[in-house]
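Hey,
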Amino acid sequence: MPSGAAAEDRAADYLSRQGLKLLARNWRCRAGEIDLVMQDGHTLVFVEVRSRASAAFGGAAASITPAKQARLIRAAEQYLLQHPCRAPCRFDAVLIEGSDLQWLKQAFEAAS
């Protein structure tokens, strides 16, 4: 299983090849951390990268719990306060299990 940094490198490289532009990496605030902040056309994308050795015990996707989602949403709100923009936003996830990489666009939504 790659380290967190190696998984983020792999995810950032993959998303860049898909046409996204990296804006920030490991962006931190009191509410938490956003692994990758990217731009997909006119959309601001907050990306959570999760890596697991295998799909056992629910795999990487199962590790993005409702509590983790809430922390990501709060961190994204802080990012937007510090970097105001009127672009639409979404939350994606890049899941790495062993050598497999899966990109989930709109992995979850912020409650209105």
